[in-house]
Amino acid sequence: WVCVPASLLQDKTKDLSRNAADWIGTIGGFKETTLWIDCMLLLIFGGIPWQASAQKLSFVAGIGCILMAIPPALIGAIARNTDWRLTNYNPWNNGTKSESILADQTNMVVPLVFQHLTPKWVAFIGLGAVSAAVMSSADSSVLSAASMFAHNIWKLAIRPNAHEEEVICVMRIAIIAVGFCATLMALTINSIYGLWYLCADLVYVILFPQLVCVVYFKHSNTYGSVTGYIVGLLLRLSGGEPLLSFPAFIHYPMYEEVIKEDGTILGTQFFPFRTMAMLGSFITCIGTSYLSEYLFANGILPVGMDFLKCVVNIPPERIALHSDVSFNVSSETLNAQRAKDSGDNYTRTNFLKPPETSTITELSTLQPSNNKDYLTLSKGI
Question: pTM, whole model, 2 decimals?
């Protein structure tokens, strides 16, 4: 808002309303409409699996985005209606001027306007504000990604017994790796908006089906989750990604290729393959979960093959507790509560007797009847 008035109050820019009709684009025909609907569903449902804090922040930031989106739009209109031959803009560094900004430099419209169409002190404030915003977002993103890898992946999955010093060392290495990857992407990708789409794309295809299955389908398990993840990822990668110059392995219907001047071939998938990949992951997750439960529950597969321990070979600490029992209670309190809920007259000592001295009263419905390892001791257990 400080730089926009300064950009308007100079004689190199023409009337902004003379090409206002070009500001509003068109979707196109049937192919473009299917792509637009696919991207619309991607943005709508791709934001649901985000963390609650991120979702709330997005709603609150919506007002700020509306206010802060007006200056970039005005700056773009100013750049569009400016005769850049009257400025010091020298795109080829040989003294040759250009009437408009080159196509490969349109992502630098804001700094170019600040540099050539505003006084130096205004440009200093504008570029400083942009740099501060970019750096604050970049360092927080790098630190959060490295911290998440160190604590959620290294500490919980790879080395549960790792010391705090080791976790900190891994975090420092992850910061370097994430920073290198982020720098590489910043130098090779020209669209920030495209990166935002890509982030929502992966969440929509991979995480959204997982979230729906976990919340609404009680029979979903780890086998379905893993297979659904793999199927969704493969289907998504098969369609390619022009933003990353990643070629398509499968040419879906309405696929078109465009050959650039440098010989690079870019393909556009007008078919809504992202939604197809999401539905494929969702169906695979449900189908595999039901199939694995059926095979283990009916004894078709032995119990030992449940290597993920999520269908029949479930560890005691992962068995769901009663809703009125806290997850933080001790094992003694939990056993006493179970004995009370069962209606039996067991004392605490009798309840904790070894299985061979107790009376078997019920068979588990999820286990084969000929497997003695899965006989329960009490109806309330």
Answer: 0.63
